[in-house]
Design a protein that fits this description.
The protein has 479 residues and is mainly α. It has 20 helices and no strands. The relative contact order is 0.18.
């Protein structure tokens, strides 16, 4: 499809987001940026969180990863259900009881100043890396679809992507995002369904026939039982549960949306429906991945070495102009629904946790918030450019590997705070949380020699959290 046509679609889409932003910022007060005045409808939050959770990574990387690991990713997805149950029954009641804006304020009340800042620091690190991975994907697609033909470099794609997010979020924050994310989730899921229908038409098979074709193929294998391998069911199920807990329940980005619900009951209802829809959505993406590989074989298309490129290349070059339009809308929606809330949550955490916003004069608050919002936009740009120079694998795997190291200390801090009554020597907590990822990295490198051939997968997160928990136990107060 002509790059100018795709660019026009992109501009129209962005105008729609600006229109929603304008509507949601009427009669705006200062706190609406951070918690939407606790007035968001739970069903809107639940649907919008689907897009945030899935993001451009799921949209592109999960279908491509089917060629490497079949449907084994669904083992992780099943573990999510257990993780979301823990969030709804343990973490959400805790956050509402303390009436938190930044969830890391809990660590201040439980342990003290240094633990509080340490928890928020690891969130800022984790979300900056995660958001950069996600934005890297959408910038790459825009580069292939639009800017290569127009002669612009990849850095220009990244700059445009971040700038547009900043424009429609800098004023309304989370109040705007609750509404834009719901719209973007709709676009994303619609794109997947439409792509599947078009592939079935191209292959001249029915939905029932496609089910039989996928089931009889090598791609449909879900369960693996080999304790030494990284894709063992028990490893991935348990890892999935803890990934959900840390990347949703201990993540300011995801919890900030939940905390805009009117009360705890609505937030828990939101979490229940969110996890049900999320499981089916992930299964839909896996089926799309299998069909992409089957269609590639059907037309004699050579699968690219970098599997993240499979869906974009087929959608933009081999499935017709309409599919190209649908794909572009889907990837933009998927990436923006995650990245916009990430930018807002990074701003929120830094303002509340590090700048003591409640002590800043009202007249200066907006200026400070805008400066922080812009600052994190610049940081995301820099990290994406670094990632572009070193990435050569599946982004979905890169995100979970990074999460194992950066979210582990958060898992240890919150677990120790919730499940023990010990106080700790607060000033040492930062060093415990820095040491644990380093030890995790060393153990992972030598795991096969030390642990009789055992290979770590996503459960590195559990090891990191456990080491943090043990470290906090060692610095507990004697009294």
């Amino acid at each position: 499809m002509n790059a100018n046509i795709i660019l026009l679609i992109f501009i129209i889409y962005f105008i729609v987001l600006l229109f929603i932003s304008r509507l949601t910022t009427k009669n705006l007060n200062f706190n609406d940026f951070f918690n939407a005045n606790r007035s968001s409808p739970w069903f809107l939050v639940a649907f919008g969180m689907i897009g945030t959770s899935l993001s451009g990574v799921t949209f592109i990387s999960v279908p491509g990863e089917v060629g490497n690991s079949n449907f084994s990713y669904f083992q992780v997805v099943l573990g999510y259900l257990l993780g979301y149950f823990v969030i709804a029954r343990i973490l959400l009641p805790l956050y509402y009881r303390y009436n938190l804006i930044s969830i890391y304020s809990y660590l201040d009340q439980r342990f003290g100043f240094y633990s509080y800042r340490t928890g928020s620091f690891f969130f800022l690190l984790s979300r900056t890396i995660g958001a950069s991975f996600r934005l890297f994907l959408v910038a790459g697609v825009l580069q292939i679809a639009i800017f290569n033909e127009l002669g612009f470099p990849f850095s220009f794609s990244v700059l445009v992507t971040i700038l547009l997010i900043w424009v429609y979020t800098f004023k309304g924050g989370i109040k705007t995002i609750v509404w834009t994310d719901a719209l973007q989730t709709l676009f994303m899921l619609s794109a997947v369904i439409i792509t599947i229908v078009i592939i079935l038409n191209k292959m001249n098979i029915s939905l029932v026939e496609s089910y039989s074709l996928i089931r009889s193929s090598e791609f449909s294998q879900i369960f693996h039982f080999n304790w030494k391998e990284s894709n063992d069911f028990f490893k991935q199920f348990i890892s999935g549960a803890f990934i959900a807990i840390v990347m949703t329940g201990l993540d300011q980005d995801m919890m900030q949306k939940n905390l805009t619900c009117r009360n705890l009951s609505e937030a828990q209802k939101n979490m229940f429906w969110f996890c049900v829809i999320l499981v089916f959505a992930n299964l839909l993406f896996l089926c799309l991945g299998a069909l992409l590989y089957l269609y590639s074989d059907f037309i004699g298309f050579t699968v690219p070495e970098r599997t993240d490129d499979l869906y974009p290349l087929l959608a933009l070059n081999h499935l017709g102009d309409f599919t190209s339009v649908v794909f572009i809308l889907g990837i933009i929606a998927a990436a923006y629904s995650s990245a916009d809330s990430a930018l807002t949550s990074l701003t929120t955490a830094f303002c509340i946790d590090f700048l003591n916003f409640d002590k800043i004069k009202d007249v200066n608050r907006n200026k400070v918030r805008l400066a922080v919002h812009l600052g994190f936009s610049i940081i995301l740009f820099a990290v994406i450019m670094i990632f572009n120079s070193i990435n050569d694998g599946s982004v979905i795997n890169s995100i979970f590997k990074a999460a194992g190291y950066t979210y582990g200390p958060l898992l240890g801090l919150f677990s120790f705070g919730i499940f023990t009554k010990y106080k700790i020597k607060d000033k040492f907590s930062f060093w415990v949380c820095m040491t644990s990822p380093a030890l995790t990295y060393l153990i992972n490198i030598y795991s096969e020699e030390l642990l009789f051939g055992y290979k770590f997968g996503f459960e590195l997160l559990l090891l990191n959290g456990l080491l943090t928990f043990i470290g906090l136990f060692l610095i507990k107060e004697r009294s």
